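Translate sequence into structure tokens.
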Amino acid sequence: MRVTTSPPLWRYLSPAERKERASRVKIALLVFTEYATERFDIGTIEDLELLLHGDALKSPSWDDEFAHLFVVEDPSTAVIETLGGHFDIDPMFFRGHISDYIWYNIRDPWIELPSLDVVSRDQSHHSIRYRQTRFFRSFQSLKKARDELNLFNVLRRIDKEGNMGPEDDSTTGTPIGIVRSKMSCWIQPQSQQSHTVTGILLMDPPIIEGHPIWGGYNSLVPCPSIHSSPSPRGPHQSLFEETNYWLGRLTTLEVRSLSQDPWLLLQKPLSIVCSEWILLIKYANTRFSQLEWEVEDPQLRHHRDGLAVTISKLHTWRRRFPIYKAMVSETLEKVVRRRGGSLQVLENDFVILLAELDTLHERAEKMMSVVTAVLSIEESQKALQQNRSLGRLTWLAALFVPLSFISSFFSMNDDVTKLHDTFWIYFVVAIPMTLLALLLTRYSRNLGVVFYAIARRAKGLSERVL
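Result follows.
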């Protein structure tokens, strides 16, 4: 929090960039009343301080049943200090939102150790990890998106078929990026609330490059009747705008229940997270079908590097599925089931997600076994072909060795003219010797069996005589 951005990026920033990042503010304050939801955009830290320390929140002119939700995109040092100091928020709420690490090096000082369940049970905040699947028209576009992520205060990265590193310059494959994303929510504890529910929702900034795969997820409401008005659909401009759109459509009954069920504010954002997981699972199903096709079709199997590439892709997915299952399970157990109330309507959706991830994980394991078996068969076939080539060399050796031996034997005479009368002897001797060598080469295995049988019979006769 002190360095404004994730620690690994700090040393690469100039003083001007650090100052800009520290003062970055993009907040939407949603005020929920009984009959309407009003939105106030905040673009400077002065406006935020004036709103917090003025009379706007202390003495509202709206009805008694309402709530305040600060939707923050890409939190900065100024935003963290202002909101955290005013509402006395646990610093781990902000710190847990900054990074996207799945594991840490043993020397990383910014490691975030998980709290015991008995401790986290009483916390008033949650960080929800998920993945966004985006399509890019080229790998150059994918790299531009990675450069965009470096402009965020929070640390976010893009995974493709394998982890994308700075040295990656591949030009073949599927231009799909899986964005590591996170959403964090804080609700003011009941002991600190008066008649107002206050919450803070931290969101990731949008990526301009590329677009969501298959046009993004479906609408969060059912398809309307043909006789009713069209079904609403979010703007799909950014998660920030999408969240504000759906939260602004809460019904009067839902707004009235906020005082008893404040975590209702997280229901729509969680629905977006669940929809993003569904997109990822559908994409994984597509990739698995393509990989199975590569294994089934001999032409695709021998295209470029063949099954070696297929195994590497399968290994990448097989390594990621346990991580994805842990993320979904954490959201299900620590958010949906623990908070209960209105969030329980999403419990079955997350259970289905876990089941589908389990199925994909098992499918990856089985496919890995099949691909390994097919690869072993192909290696055996290559070995057989090599053995046939060696067999041809053996025949050539059997053909020329006798000829060389006979020619060397007859050339020991120093007077070549003396061979005029005996030249025909070379062919008489060489041809039968060559045929004999070829026969011995061809039937060497059978001769070995015959000699072994004769030896056993001779040994049996000798034992009888004795």
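Note: The first strand starts at residue 27 and ends at 32.
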